[in-house]
C-alpha cells in the first residue's frame, strides 16, 4: 500500500499539495509529473475539468504567496 503522502484519499489534501507545487517558479520534471497526476486524480474524484483544477490551483497558490511573503 502507498504512503498517505503519495496517495492521499482526500481531494482536499491533493489540492493543498498542488497549490504548494504551483507556488514555485520552477519545478523539477518529477514534480511536474506529480502535479499532472494530482490534477488527473482531483478531476476524476471531484468530477470537474482539468482546466478548472489548474485554475483553482493557481488561485490557491496566489493566496499562499500573499499570505507568506
CA distance, first residue to last residue: 37 Å
Residue-averaged pLDDT, rounded? 84
Cα-atom radius of gyration: 12 Å
User: How many DSSP E strands?
Assistant: 0
User: What is the total domain count?
Assistant: 1
Strand content: under 5%
Question: Can you tag this structure with a few keywords?
Answer:
69 residues, mainly alpha
Overview of the molecule:
This protein is mainly alpha-helical and 69 residues long. It has helices spanning 11-22, 29-46, 50-67. The protein has one domain. Helix content is 70%, strand content 0%. The longest helix is centred in the middle third of the chain and has 18 residues, at 29-46. The model has no long low-confidence stretch (mean pLDDT 84).
In brief, what are we looking at here?
This protein has 3 helices and no strands.
